[in-house]
Amino acid sequence: MSHTASTTAPTAVPAAAADVPPPGGAGPTDAHRAKQAMRRLHRTEHRWAAAFIAAPVLGFLVFTLYPLGYALYASLTRWNGLTAPQFIGLENYTRLLGDPYFRQTLWNTAFYMIGIPIGLVLALLLAIALNRKIPGQTAFRTIYYVPVISSLAAIAIVWQFAYNGDFGLVNQVLDWFGVDGPNWLQNTATVKPAIIIMAVWKGLGYSMLLYLAAIQSVPRSLYEAASLDGANAYHRFRSITLPMVRPVTFFLVVTNVIAGSQIFTEINIMTPTGGPEFSSASIVYYIVRQAFRYQQMGYATAMSVVLGLIVFVVTLIQFRLNRRNSFSID
Amino acid sequence: MTTRLPRLAALALAGALALTACGSGGGESGGDSDTLTFMFRGGADEKAAYQAAIDKFTEDTGVKVEMTVTDADQYATKLQAAVSGNKVPDVFYIEQANLQSYVASGVLLDITDQVEEAGVDLDNIWEYGVDSYRFDGTLQGTSEGRLYGLPKDVGPFAFGYNKTMLEANGIALPDPDVPLSFDEFRDITKQLTQDTDGDGALDQWGTGLNVQWNLQSMVWSNGGDFVNEDRTEVTVDTPEFAEALQYFADLTNVDGVTPNASEAATLDTYQRWMAGEIGFFPVGPWDVSVYNDLDFEYDLIPWPAGSTGESATWVGSLGIGVSATSGNPDAAVQLATYLSADPEAQQTLVDANIQIPNLKDVATEWATAADAKPANRQEFLDIVEDYGRAMPASFTYGAQWYDELWVNIQPVLDGKQTAADYLAEVQPKMQALLDESNTNAEMAGGGA
Questions:
Q1: Torsion angles phi and psi, residue B373, rounded to 5
Q2: Which of B98, B100, B440, B442 to mutate: most A Cβ within 10 Å?
Q3: Is A80 an interface residue toward B (CB < 8 Å)?
Q4: Which CATH class is domain B4-155+316-388?
């Protein structure tokens, strides 16, 4: 329905506007008629406004609210995805509380979040470095951005090779320094760090680009004034750059946490069985496994609902914290 | 349609962002009377063989067939998406473990009568293959149930050895009729495990087995099992089971006759076997086309046997089912029957070395062929007819209880935990999941 509204609107709106009497032409006797014309115009405009608003609202109702409501309902049912769901109350939720794999995958997912601060610090440092006039600046920016636009599935496979214990690139490099690298993806202690390293590498370019834009929009005059006052490079970074890029940091933290809580593809490709003793399985990996391997659609939906709630609450807290710390310059 | 939409949407939500891979469904539902849709899975060899067989079908019957082929690991997801989207292909592969839920959901057509009318001689097809797709509402795999599919093939999982390597090491070739005992097997594999080039690292091993695919044989031949006969009780905590698992783990940790965990993880034993570094290794019918091109001679023998002295192994099977909502059920059943039981179609598929014949008479001829390679093809047939069993989770409602066994088994394989301790620990968890699956089966059966 959004399609019809948007295609007919441009031709119709000027036609409605033609009803408006030319300005200044309306004498006192025409006042009544003018008011009527005005009202007619408002009515048509309102109608079009409503049509425009209806498109996203209907989209939201049909593609977001309705599925969300249905998911809430489905989470209270026993449902295999094929037959009609059967209502079982809160059974899925009580089962979830006692499910060690649910706790473990939730913990694994939280563990992956360690990569977020690491990634942001590296990205900021890189952005500062690439903001200087160095030869090959554009080439470097491109190189760091390439992983961002590459297919995640392809990257996961390449890193899987790189992490191979015997002939993988990572251990070959470590070998030059006399370090005997572990079998990264087969070891409960190293599999999560291995995936974090990959995720940081993959996301670096994107964060860097946003930081670069933020740094470049900091007014030069602030730095000049600070220099005149005797601030050194560290002070300028600490008191000007860092606060000025805070909105970007906030944006990146929020989006990274939301995306990170849904980490799946790299886990599924690099450790198809969920890693040694399920040590790399993320919560979404576990949900997909329950839904599509074991046809436990109801239980999987209940876990999705809990995950959604957790993400919602965490994001809310972040907004609260950000408001407390926000500031503005005149 | 109206009831499908919300379910489909919720389905998408359940998987959050992860499900982009499942978007495309199968073929169109067959409204067109002279075109059927057929969804299956397999590699390039399999696709070519099926294309040839189906071209012949179209030539004979005038019925066109539109084929959709997927990778093996995506098949189940794609089929489920097709079902949810109300676009069930007319004819499709069906896994043993999913049969019950698809029957309960009314997706699969009961083809008992049509197959009988078509005059298919079911007695000439492997009993295990046919019975796998029978379901009487409570138990699957018994000979009384209604027929919801025909076997695409049966997959006996045989044991093989590298003949060239054994001969080079002066070891007497194992008897194709008498299984080795666990002790004999250990002794031979110990002799084979060597450092042949003297660089201080082993480069030839007696064997290299995968716990998920090879433990069954050892457990069964040792008198243990995974579940009781009516599939209500998990029986992995018996001494027989523990002994078999311990033997399996000790082959690596105590006897050292397999590549160790990290060696196996880096270049898996399948690759090492094909490189001629491993003495004994499993052979499935689907491996034959590849193994026949290797640089060494190999042959088949019965699996080493534990305390019962009798070999045991599993037989897999994949079925061909017909959609209950097919627009042309007669032609669809005809296609399923053709692929499973037509002698000419079977010949095409068997010649491609991707499966053993479904028909007993064709199989006997095939096994005794003078140029048979491997020479002891008969072992495959012995497994199907005699000592092969269904995988433990084939006939239960879902396999979650069974998968649980493997999740935390690594410490046992690494020698950090004894088999008995681990099995005592995992049994209650598996039992809870099996109970859950049986409850689901009842509810699905009642709700349909």
A1: -140, 120
A2: B440
A3: yes
A4: alpha beta
